[in-house]
Structure formats: C-alpha cells, structure tokens
Amino acid sequence: MIIKHSLKTAFKGITTHKSRSALTILGIVVGVTAIILVMSLGEGAQNLILNQVQSIGAKTIAVVPGRQPKGPTDIIATFADSLKDRDLDLLQRKENVPHLEKIMPVVFGGETASREGETYRPNILGVTGLASKIYDIYPEEGRMFTDDEIRGNADVVVIGSRVKEELFGIDYALNQKIKIKDKNFKIIGLLPKKGQFSFLNFDEVALMPYTTAQRYIFGIKYFHRLVVEADTEENVPITVEDIKKTLRESHNITDPSKDDFFVETQAEALETVSTITNTLTMFLASVAAISLVVGGIGIMNIMLVSVTERTREIGLRKAIGATGRNILSQFLIEAIVLTASGGIIGITLGAGLSFLISMVLTRLVGLDWTFTFPVSAAILGLGVSTAVGLVFGLYPARQASLKDPIEALRYE
Predict the structure, then answer these.
(1) Which of 26, 82, 213, 334 is an S-S bond match for 65, by CB 3.0 to 4.6 Å?
(2) Up-side HSE of residue 67: CA atoms within 13 Å toward CB?
C-alpha cells in the first residue's frame, strides 16, 4: 500500500506542473532519440554494406598491393605498385594456383570525360569482362569489351546511367564517342541504374579494358587490385595460401611479415566491415548519450526546485506520520517516472525517425536499405534513462526526507 500511495503521489506531483515536467524530460527524450537513431541507422548501414559484400560471392578473393593496414595511418601503404604483369602471369599458371578459376586485374581512379561542351568526372574502372559477373552488372544496351579488345588496348568504354545523363541527356549515346584525357573512346555499352554497390556507385563509372586504362588514362604498369575467383568455396583457404606462396617467390620475400601485398577473402572483408561499423556506431551512440547526463542534471535541478516549493507539504506529511523513507521514495519515484517516460518517448520518436529515413533512402535515393529496430539500444536507452533518474533524483529526494517537520510547516 505504501508503494502504491507513493506512486499515486508521485504521479500527482508530476501532472500538477505538466509544462515543467515536459521541459524537464526534454533532455532525456533528445538523448534516447539520438541513441536509437544512431544505432538503427548504424545497423541499417552495416546490413547494406554486408549484403553488398556478400553478393560479390564467397569464392571471391582480393589481392591488394602494399602492407595490410592495421590502423588509419597505414591506409597510405595500400597505394603501392607491387602487383605487376609478372605476378598476373604467375598466378594464372595452373601449377602455381591449381584452384584458381578466374582472375581479373583492376585499376581505378578519376578523370574528366567530355562531349560537345558537356563535362563530367566519372570513376574510371579498368577491368575485364569478368566484372559483369563479379559485380552483377550487365549492360542494358550494347555489350562488354572482349578479350581481343583488352589485348589490343582498345579505346572502348561502357558507361553508367549518370555518366550518360550528364554527357548526353536524352540523346542517343550507344556507339557515340566521348573524350577522356584527350583521347576519344567509343561507347559500346550502357549500364542500367544500379546505384551504390559496396564502395562504388556504378551509375557514376566508366568501365574500360584495364590495359587501356593503364596505358592511356593512368600511365602505370601495375595493378591496384587483383580479383581472384576460386573454383569452389571450400578451396578458398588453400587458394589464398597458394597466392601468397606464389607472390612471395615472385617478390623474393622469405619473411611473411615483410609482405608487400595482402590477400583478403569475403569472410575477412565482412569481419572488417562489421568491426568498423560497430565501432563507429558505438562511438556516435556514446556521444549522443552525453545528452542524457545533461538531462539528468536538469532533472536534479527541477527536483530541487520542487522540493523547495513543496516544503509545507513535506512538513504536513511528516506531521501526520510519514517517515523520511516515505518522503525519499516519493521524490525518487517522481524522478524515475520522469526519466523513464522520457526514455519511452525517446525510443518511440527515434524508431519513428529511423523508419522515415529508411523510407527516404529506399524510395528516393534507391538504396536497398532495411529498417532495423535496435532492441538492445531500446533496452539500454530505457535502462540508462531510468538509472539517470535514480542517480540524479537521489540527492533532491534525500534533501526532502531530511527536512524538519516543524521548520517545514513554518516555511512560507
């Protein structure tokens, strides 16, 4: 009965000053909303990236030049020139990598394309015809380039939908020419709208034979990536080891710690992406949680004001038999109810905003975005907001419980 009475009294105290109560919990609402929003969008982004990485295929292996980055300062080490034609030839030999089914050199960068006064800067991607299978992107008009065109450094290009729109508008583009770095390229294929895939937007690319890109666009004799496909998923680990062994022999490396390349499977890529996105999401959620502390200070401030305003009430309750513990529980319950209410409102608001953003990203931006309600974040938000009420409400409640009933009754 005592708890029931304390709850009833606490609710009456809160509803007596509705506007003040609403403003008091605003900090809690903002903090919890931000946490839910960040966690939900973080999970959605992670699912989007992981699905795109998985869609490349479990048999796909990436060989990257340079040292494997261990931190932000090592990223520059991946821009190396350690993968060359000799490495490609050695990896293609069956005796070196028996389970290698296909291999695709990749070079990439940005360069300005122009046509009759119109200019656009697409992402240049030098690849082979295998790119269509790996990235699941096939021309909706025209074709991909052939092996003969790759061997002959042919000046042909397949462009994305955004590139076509920027350079041609509504004009017909297939078999027309665009100029890239003072050289004319014939458009032999037009890609459908695909949007973002992994870390590349295929609407903004210009695909060409890697030999052509090396010679005429970038002026290099090395590769930025080698994409390998094993014959079966089960043979991926042994293929990775064969690749490492072959490249170490080619580069005269005896100590694996001195490797000037690294090999990454899709499983490792998924793990790396998960680690990065989880770390970033938790960091942003931690920043958002700071507002809960601010909200807690606001709760304590308002509760102290409430204690002062209700001094005579406290004295009267004590005079008719209420104990210090009864007073303490009443004000403590008020603080917890306020913060818990703010937590519930914040969870609802955060989930609603996340859903709306997901709808916008899916329908307007064209991303394959899935709305995710972060249950763990909701439990955490509610738990933390309640704990904030308990911690920051304890001092005002204790101050109320320690008031002398006679002095309280005299208070004006």
Answers:
(1) 82
(2) 12
